[in-house]
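Regression check, FE2/S2 (inorganic) cluster case 126:
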Amino acid sequence: MMIIKKTSRIKFNNKFLSSISVKFIEDNKEINCKGKLSETLLKLAKDNNVSLEGTCGGSQSCSTCHVYVDKKYINKLEPIQEDEEDLLDMVDDYKVNSRLACAIKLNEHLDGIVLDVPTNSTNLLH
Ligand code: FES
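Current build output:
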């Protein structure tokens, strides 16, 4: 009997990826992490002590997970949905590369992504 072990590795650009490399920049400090496929950037940030509050638990209603995405990666993200766009319209320090970390799931195209954490976050639940 042959046992086939499932792995979470995928082949991308002729190399196998078992995790996705992510760099958060917070207060000029780099925090390098390895995330799993389909994991949200918010979960990865929380697991690695990046100070994104995520007050609403990832339900896209607070905006305390606001990040700036490196412009090299902005077009590799899934298109922004209306709910996320509506929230981002109300955050302080909005930029064209603003996104919500709870709305972004890791995939192979995001390997090496760099995210800036804003100094202040806007909590739209208050
Ligand atoms: S955690 Fe609240 S909007 Fe992302």
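Comparison notes: The domain at 17-116 is CATH 3.10.20.30 (Ubiquitin-like (UB roll)). Residues 41-47 form the longest helix (7 residues). No diff flagged against the previous build.
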